Amino acid sequence: MTPEDVFPAFARAIATPLSAALRRLKSRPRLVLEPGRAIVEHPVYLLTSVAAIKRLPSGAKAAVLDAGVHLLPTAYYTALDIAPTEPSPLSVEEVTLFGPLCMQVDCLATGLRLPPIRRGSVLVVRNCGAYADSQSMQFIHARPAVVLVSEGRAELLREPESVEHFVARDRLPERLRPPAAPPA
């Protein structure tokens, strides 16, 4: 469902019983909505590439991506909309998609039907807006750049993180520093 479909139905579901209840209330209530997911889920996409292809002990195909649950925490409770970015042949195969975290919980999709993919293939995770970026974490891997694409133009909103970003604010107390080497 798109926001254009959801908003009118949502408004009716709230406004109809609220209007009926207004006659019985002594004061007018304040209705506050936080429509974050409905507004920003659909326009946000994440591009990820296949880092490795593996065969599981069962013989099923698996791919390791450069994005995982550290960038897509919603994968824990909702199916992700993942597709190839390039036109592909009509043949499909089932594949399980894992993130790069080397942890059992870093599984983005199981038995997803995709055209044949290989190392370097780029996939798009559609409709992953809302809270994915704000809930993402720097765990093992740095977070990628954020880019706004509008009217055929791409504009950098946030640079990709680096190791320097991780350690830039760290400080080592003077008492724990090794003694300076004597001049040569």
SSE inventory with pairings:
Layout (H helix, E strand, L loop, with lengths): L2 H20 L13 H5 L5 E10 L5 E5 L15 E4 L8 E6 L8 E8 L7 E5 L5 H4 L10 E5 L2 E6 L4 H5 L17
Parallel strand pairs: 2-4
Antiparallel strand pairs: 1-2, 1-6, 3-6, 4-5, 7-8
Description:
- The chain has 184 residues and is of the alpha+beta class.
- It has helices at residues 3-22, 36-40, 132-135, 163-167, and strands at 46-55, 61-65, 81-84, 93-98, 107-114, 122-126, 146-150, 153-158.
- A hairpin with an 8-residue loop joins β4 (93-98) and β5 (107-114).
- The protein is extended, with a radius of gyration of 23 Å.
- The N and C termini lie far apart (71 Å).
- The model has no long low-confidence stretch (mean pLDDT 86).
Q: How do you describe this structure in short?
A:
The protein is built from 4 helices and 8 strands; from the N terminus they run ααββββββαββα. It is an alpha+beta fold and 184 residues long.
List keywords for this structure.
184 residues, alpha+beta, six-stranded mixed β-sheet, two-stranded antiparallel sheet, 4 helices, 27% strand
Average pLDDT reading: 86
Radius of gyration: 23 Å
Q: List SSEs in N-to-C order.
A: HHEEEEEEHEEH
> Could you tell me the strand content as a percent range?
25-35%
Alpha plus pi helix count:
4
Largest sheet: 6 strands, mixed
Distance between the termini: 71 Å
List the uncertain runs. none
Strand order of the largest sheet: 3-6-1-2-4-5
Would you report the number of β strands? Answer: 8
Q: What would the principal axes of the Cα set say about the shape?
A: extended
The structural class is alpha+beta
Portion of residues in helices? 10-25%
